[in-house]
Amino acid sequence: MSIQYDEAARLFHLKTKNSSYQMKADSVGTLLHLYYGEAVTSDMSYLIRYTDRAFSGNPYVQRNSRCYSLDILPQEYAGSGVGDYRLPAIQVIAENGSRSVDLTYEGCKIFRGREALTDLPYVRGGGEEETLEITLSDPVIGLRVLLYYTVFEEEDVIVRSAKIVNQSEKPIYLEKAASACIDFPCGRYDLMHFHGRHCMERQAERMTLPNGVASFGSRRGMSSHHSNPFVILCDKNCTENAGSCYGFMLMYSGNHLEEAERDQMGSVRMVAGIHPDGFSWLLNPGDSFQTPEAILSFSASGLNGLSGQYHRLLQKRVIPAKFQHTKRPVLINSWEAAYFDFNAEKILRFARSAKELGMEMLVLDDGWFGHRNDDTSSLGDWTVNEEKLGCSLKTLSEQIHALGLRFGLWFEPEMISEDSMLYQAHPDWALKDPDRKPTIGRNQMVLDMSRPEIVDYLFAAISAVLDHAQIEYIKWDFNRSVANFFSAGLPARRQGELAHRFILGTYRLLDRLLKRYPDLMIEGCAGGGGRFDAGMLFYCPQIWCSDDTDAIERLEIQRGTSYGYPVSAMGSHVSASPNHQTGRAVPLHTRGIVAQSGTFGYELSPEGLPDAEKKEIRNQIAAYHQYSDLIAQGRYYRLNELDSSEDFSAWMFVSEDQSEALVNLVMTHIRANGPLPFIKLCGLSAEKAYRLEGTDQVFSGAALMHGGYSFPLPFGDYAASQLHFLETTIE
Ligand code: GLA
User: Fold this and answer.
1) What is the set of active-site residues?
2) Whose CA is nearest to atom 2 of ligand 1?
3) For ligand 1, which residues put their CB under 6 angstroms from it?
4) 130-138 and 3-6 strand pairing
5) DSSP letter (8 states) at residue 438
6) What is the pLDDT of residue 187?
7) At what angle do helices 611-633 and 344-357 cross, to 10 degrees?
C-alpha cells in the first residue's frame, strides 16, 4: 500500500520505493506538512514544535495559545489573509470583497488508480498507483479545496493537483490556485532553476536560497525559453551523484510561477502553479476549477538520480504510449537547408540525396502555404501554395514516399498574420485589446485559442491538409510570446481567464487531432525550445530543443534540458558548419555526437557534400541505429558537475541491465600542453567487466567508476570522443 492513513491520528503517509511524504490534520483541522524525504517508518509529527513567535498571530480558536500560529506551522496548502504571512497557495475575492481563505480539514478518500483530467494533460495512470483525495474547506465563504496526490511508487513520484469548488450561493473570484505547496523545515538548501532566452534555453543556475522570496515563471502565454516550469530544491552538499534533492515540475505550457520562500525562521515554502499575474477565474455557485498537475520527486542519490526519475516517468507515463518505444526516424529538415527558398523540385533533390545518405524522413518546414515567402504573411491560411511548389502537396508527398522516405510538415497553428485571408475575414480572431493596436512579434499576431470556433477552424484546416497528402509527422511551432490578453469572446469579468483558456484551447486542438490521427507524430516547437514542458510532452513525444543548432552551444542547452527531460524527447539535428547562428566551425564528427543525444536528424543541404562528409554522415546514421535504443531507453548521467571548470562536457548512457554503456566527451576549449580529459563513469555494475569496443582493453565497472578514465590529449577545436563499453566475461 503506497498510501497509509491512520484515522485516529489523522496522519497520512505516502510511500514511494525510496521516499516518504507525511502530513497530518491537527486537532483544529489545520493540514500540516510533516515530512518529505528519504523513506522512513516513524510518525514524523515530532518535528512540529509549537513556539511563541512575536508578530505571528494566533487563530481565534487558539487565542489562548500563543505558540500556535499558521505563520510558523508547516502547511500543506496555505490559505491567505488569516495570519500566515508566507506565500499563499490560494487567493480569492469573495462577493463582498473579502480576500481571506482559511482552509481546514474535512475528510479524505483513498482509491486505486487515478482519474484522467478532461481538459488538461496529466500523468497517465497504470492502474496500480493509488490516489489520495483530501478535502479542505472554508465554510465562511463556502469554498472547498480538493487536494489530489497520486503515488507512483516504482517511479518515486508523487503527482499533485487541486480542485477548487464554489459551494456557496454567490460568485467567488479565484486569483491564485497553486498546483502544489510544501513547507520544508529549516535547513541549508540550494535552488536550481532553468532560465534562458531564444537560442539559449534551459540554462541551469544554482543559487543559495536567499531570505525572502525567489520566484521564477513566465507571463508570456507560454512556458517560455526564459524560465522552464521546473525547479529543484537540494541540500547544499548535493552533487550530481550524491545528496538529497527535490524536483517540482509543472505539467503546463502556459503562464506559470514557481516560488520559494525562506521565512523568518529559515523554513522554506515551495509553491508552484499557474502564474497569478493577470489570472482571475470566476467561479459561479457550483463551479469548480482544476489546476494543472505538479510532478514531485525526491532523490537521495543526487541530481543524476532525480533526473533519471523524471526521465522514466515522462517516458513511461507522459509521452503518448505509441511513441514510448518507437525508434524515431532520422529526419532531414528543410529549414536551415533552404529557409523559404524552395519548390518541389528542390525538396525532391534534397529527398534523393538524403535517402542516399540513409535518412528516413523529409520534413518540409515553413513556407509551403498561403503566399508565404518570408515571415510577413499567411499564418492562418493553411492552404498549399501549389504555385510555389509547382505541384500539389499530395504529388510531392507521393514522390517522397516513392523514394522510401516518410514525409513531415511544419505548422504554426496558434498564429495569424495581418497579411492573411484569415485576418481579412476575422480580424477579431487575433488577440488584441479594444481600441489598441496589437503588439506584433515576428510580424505576427496570436489567435484567440480560447474560442471554440477558432479551434474548430484550425482542426478543419489542418485535417484538410493531413487528409490530402500522406503526412506522418508535423512540427508544431509557436514563434512569439503572447501579449494583448483580451478576447472578443469573453465578457469583461472573465478576461482574467484568457491566458489559461488559451492553453486549454491548444491542448484541445492537439487532443482532437491525435484522436483523429493516432499515428501522427507531432514534434513540439516554439521558436526552438520555448515550450519544452511536460504539458506539451503529453501530446508531442519530442520537442525541438533550440533554434541554436551550434553543437557547442547545444552542449549547455541539452545538458540544462536533461535535468528534467529525457534525451528521447530532445529534438536535435546536425547542421552546417560554420553554424548559421554563431558562425562557429565544429567538426562534423562532433556535431554528430551532440545531435545523437537527442532525436537525431539533419538540418543542412544534403546536396553536393564532399565524399568524406558523406561517409561520415553514413557512419553517424549507422551509429544512431546501433545506439538509438541505448540512448533513448538507457539511463543518462551527466559526468561534469554544474559550473565545473573542465574544458570538456561529458555524459553517458547505461542500459537498464548495465551490460552496455556509451560515453561521450566533447572538448569545449583546447589548450597547449593541457591536462588530459578525465572522468569517472557512472551507473555501471561494480562487479561486471566491460570491454572497450574496438580494443581488447577490459575494465571492471568498479575501476571505471572509482578510478575513472582519462582520454588521450585532444588536438584541434572541439574534438569529440565516443567510447562504447560492452559487458564481457573475464577469462
Ligand atoms: C522556428 C523554428 C525553426 C523553424 C522556423 C520557421 O524558429 O524553431 O526551426 O521552423 O520557426 O519559421
Assistant:
1) 533, 613
2) 527
3) 335, 365-366, 410, 477, 479, 525, 527-528, 544, 547
4) unpaired
5) P
6) 86
7) 70
Residue with CA nearest ligand 1 atom 7: 527
Is the pLDDT reported for residue 730 higher than 90? no
pLDDT of residue 340: 98
CA of 579 to the centre of ligand 1 (A): 16
Render pLDDT for 386-404 as a digit per residue (tens, 0 to 9): 999 999 999 999 999 999 9
Query: Is residue 667 within 8 Å of 586, Cβ to Cβ?
Result: no
**509: helix, strand or coil:** helix
Cβ-Cβ contacts under 8 Å for 731 (sequence gap 6 or more) = none
Which of 374, 379, 477 is the pocket-test mutation for ligand 1 (most atoms within 8 Å of CB)?
477
Q: Is 386 left (phi over 0), alpha (psi -120 to 50) or beta?
A: alpha
Q: pLDDT tier at 644 (50, 70, 90 boundaries)?
A: confident
Q: Tell me phi and psi for residue 587, to 5 degrees.
A: -55, 145
Atom number, ligand 1, closest to the C-alpha of residue 525: 8
Name the pTM for this structure.
Answer: 0.98
Mutation pick for ligand 1 pocket among 525, 546, 550 (CB with most ligand atoms within 8 Å): 525
Of the chain, the end-to-end C-alpha distance in Å amounts to 46
331 Cα to the center of ligand 1, angstroms: 15
pLDDT bracket for residue 1 (50, 70, 90): confident
What does the pLDDT average to over 501-529?
A: 98
- Residue 731: pLDDT band with limits 50, 70, 90: low
Give yes or no for residue 231 having a pLDDT over 80: yes
Asked if 369 contacts 384 with a C-beta cutoff of 8 angstroms, the reply is yes
Q: What pLDDT, on the 0 to 100 scale, is given for residue 406?
A: 98
Separation CA 479–CA 446 (nearest Å): 10
What's residue 185's pLDDT?
87
What is residue 447's DSSP assignment?
A: B
CA–centroid distance, residue 336 to ligand 1 (Å): 9
- What separation in Å is there between the alpha carbon of 335 and the centre of ligand 1? 7
CA pair distance 258, 92, nearest whole angstrom: 19
